Amino acid sequence: MGQHGAAIKDYDKAVDLKPGDAKAYNGRGSAYSALGRYDEAMRNYDQAIKLKPDFADAYSGRGSVHAAQGQVDAAIKDYDKAIALDPYFEEAYLNRGRAHDSKGQYDAAIKDYDKVIALLPDCAEAYNNRGGAHHAKGQVDAAIKDYDKAIALKPDLAEAHSNRGNVHQGKGQYDAAIKDYDRAIALDPDLAAAYYNRAMARLQTRVYDQAWADVRRFRNLGGTPSPSFVEELTTGSGQSE
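Predicted structure:
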């Protein structure tokens, strides 16, 4: 229900009543992690693992805390342990794939996403993420196929629409790209990257006023467009921001 503070109070009581309950520490770690209180989350996951060294969920949860703190190698090590303990742990494969992605290890990431899809064929996020890895490797047709599948499974996945737009834009298919960015923004009006990328597509289609509007929205959401793009749009439109 997203009531993490209330959850923590209940886990506190559970730990008081049964100090050796690894599940209570693991649950409290998850709640602290959801609140961004990573040090406390880490202490709880550590205690859960100390009490139950074969607790795959706790390793996976601790891996996610490491990932959130930018400690990617430590995250992968924990995901490895979780998967060794539970070879059918699809969430650990998905998160390890993301970690490999962040290190540019796209083949390893694709292998993990393949495993998620084998275990959970309806996981839209796995197709979306695999599409990103394929795109990073220059495999644009495979990327489009994965984004199409992600969208078919979860039509409201704004990121998949935006990502597919990026592939279309890379292929010079600007109208198709804009259509995807439009849909992504309709689903998530705060998706900053979609505004910026749509601005670039609109520059190419010479819809300058709308391109500038996207740049302003991107800035309002905390983004900083590249000076070279702003210069190109200024030159093309004959006007400044």
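Summary: The mean pLDDT is 97.
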